[in-house]
Write a structure and sequence with these properties.
It contains eleven helices and three strands; from the N terminus they run βααββααααααααα. It has about 250 residues and is an all-alpha fold. Strands 1-3-2 form a three-stranded antiparallel β-sheet. Keywords: DNA-binding.
């Protein structure tokens, strides 16, 4: 058992904070000494650890209170839950990093800010990374969505992002080209080669991704692809007898 002073010393949490947590019913000591001093059990310490972890991840004290109230986890399950929460937070932050890098590079290429993408990034600050892929759920399997998510949160280097933005940017700068021209075909081939590289030459995923893109919903998942770029690729493919550049 730990007195409030000893618990404060061992954890770095101030006595004032522990007093407040007790006051609002977040962490109440299990017992008291004969003199009325509060005593915290090992379970109380684990509860404090969970509170601090959830607070660090941005949950409000009211939200934390609800989470703990509805939880029947033992110590090992509690730690595992926190590990999963940390992993999801890492994924979200990594996707935010990739998205912000993408927007930063795109401003250099385009000279302007893409506001719909900025709004998507703002939403990502408040939601899980998987939410960015929800518009494509009917086209991509759970495993495929995981691959796309992993690509966004870890497998793309800054160089990959630059190359992707360049091949898409090159198409956007040349939408006026005759779809039958060799120059147009080379642009689309470069795009297809970069897509192959990004998705590990996964033919089935590329086919499903292309179907998703043709039913495009703007967002950060395939940024900076837009309908003009997609329609250009389709026109070039049609002019070449329906060649599939996505595989």
């Amino acid at each position: 058992m730990y007195t409030i002073g000893k618990l404060s010393k061992n954890t770095g949490v101030t006595v004032r904070t522990l007093d407040y947590y007790d006051e609002i019913g977040l962490i109440k000591p299990s017992s008291k000494t004969g003199g009325g001093h509060r005593l915290y059990s090992e379970d109380d310490v684990m509860q404090l650890e969970r509170v601090l972890a959830l607070k660090y991840m941005g949950f409000s004290l009211e939200q934390i209170k609800d989470i703990l109230k509805n939880s029947t986890l033992n110590w090992q399950e509690s730690i595992q839950q926190q590990l999963e929460l940390v992993k999801r937070e890492q994924e979200r932050l990594k996707m935010l990093e990739q998205a912000l890098l993408g927007v930063s590079y795109s401003i250099k290429y385009e000279g302007e800010i893409n506001w719909p993408i900025i709004f998507s990034i703002i939403q990502l600050y408040q939601h899980d990374p998987e939410d960015a892929l929800q518009p494509y759920k009917e086209y991509l399997s759970e495993d495929e969505m995981k691959i796309v998510l992993d690509m966004n949160v870890g497998n793309m280097s800054e160089e990959d992002i630059k190359e992707w933005l360049k091949v898409v940017g090159d198409i956007r700068d040349n939408l006026h080209l005759d779809p039958n021209s060799e120059e147009a075909e080379q642009l689309v081939i470069s795009w297809a080669n970069q897509a192959d590289k990004m998705f590990g030459n996964n033919e089935e995923l590329l086919e499903n991704m292309w179907e998703a893109l043709q039913n495009f919903k703007e967002g950060i998942a395939f940024y900076p692809m837009d309908n003009d770029v997609i329609n250009f690729i389709k026109r070039v493919a049609t002019s070449k007898g329906g060649q599939n550049y996505d595989t």
